[in-house]
Write a structure and sequence with these properties.
The chain is mainly β. It has 3 helices and 11 strands. The relative contact order is 0.30. 12% of the residues lie in helices and 49% in strands. The longest helix is centred in the first third of the chain and has 12 residues. Strands 1, 2, 3, 4, 5, 6, 7, 8, 9, 10 and 11 form an 11-stranded mixed sheet that branches.
C-alpha cells in the first residue's frame, strides 16, 4: 500500500495544467510605447487581440498574479500584410530587426535595479522590473520568435542592445495566413509575465496580427 501511495504522489507532481491567457479583453494587458517610435494600434476585434503595425512598434505586457512555472506555450494567430526584410540583410540585424511575432516569457531572477539605475533606465526596462514581486528580480525576457529566413530557424541569440533580451527562432513564417507557434521548455521556466513584441518600425513594414489564443502549460 505504501508503494502505491508514493507512486500516486509522483504522478500528481507531474500533472501539467493548461492556462488560457485572455485575448478577448485588453484590460489585463499593458500597452507600452517607446520614445520616438510610433506605437502600434491595439484593440479587441471579434474576441481576439488585433495589432495593427504601420512602421510602428509597441509591446504588450501581461503580468501574472504570482510567479508561474511554465512548461510550454501555444499561440494561435494569423497575419496579413508584408514584413519587408531588405535584400541581403539578416533578420534581427541592424535595419532588419522586425518580426511578425516575438512571444516573450519574463523569467524571474536575481537582477534588480538600484536607485541610480531606476533614475536613468529606459521606460521599458522600468516596466520590466515592475513585473517582479517585492524583494525579487528579473533574469531576462526569453523570446520565442517567428522568422522570415529559414536558415535562422532554431538559432538563438542575446540581443546586441541588451542582455535582458534573449531570442530563439522557433517558427518559419514566410507568407501571410494563420499559424500556430508551440514550444516546450526542457525545464519549466519560473515566469513573472508575458511580453509580446510585434514590430515593423525598423523596416517600415505594414501588417496586421491577430492573436486568437494563448495557452500556457504550467506545473
Amino acid at each position: 500500500m505504501r508503494k502505491l501511495i508514493v507512486l500516486s504522489l509522483s504522478l500528481l507532481s507531474a500533472i501539467v495544467v493548461a492556462m488560457d491567457v485572455p485575448v478577448d479583453d485588453l484590460e489585463p494587458w499593458t500597452v507600452l510605447s517607446f520614445r520616438n517610435i510610433q506605437p502600434n494600434e491595439v484593440s479587441v476585434v471579434d474576441g481576439a487581440l488585433h495589432i495593427k503595425v504601420r512602421g510602428s512598434a509597441s509591446p504588450l505586457i501581461y503580468k501574472f498574479d504570482e510567479p508561474t512555472r511554465i512548461a510550454g506555450v501555444t499561440v494561435v494567430a494569423s497575419w496579413n500584410g508584408e514584413l519587408h526584410i531588405p535584400a541581403g540583410a539578416i533578420q534581427g540585424d541592424e535595419n532588419a530587426d522586425d518580426f511578425v511575432l516575438k512571444f516573450g516569457i519574463v523569467e524571474a531572477g536575481d537582477r534588480r535595479l538600484n536607485w541610480f539605475q531606476r533614475r536613468i533606465a529606459a521606460d521599458w526596462i522600468k516596466q520590466l522590473f515592475k513585473l517582479a514581486p517585492k524583494n525579487s528580480g528579473v533574469n531576462r525576457i526569453n523570446f520565442l520568435s517567428t522568422t522570415k529566413q529559414q536558415e535562422l530557424l532554431g538559432t538563438s541569440r542575446t540581443h546586441p542592445l541588451s542582455e535582458l533580451l534573449y531570442e530563439t527562432r522557433v517558427l518559419y513564417l514566410d507568407t501571410p495566413g494563420r499559424f500556430v507557434m508551440t514550444h516546450e521548455f526542457s525545464e519549466p521556466v519560473e515566469s513573472l509575465g508575458l511580453w509580446v513584441s510585434v514590430d515593423g518600425d525598423n523596416t517600415g513594414s505594414n501588417f496586421d496580427l491577430r492573436l486568437e489564443r494563448i495557452t500556457l502549460r504550467t506545473d
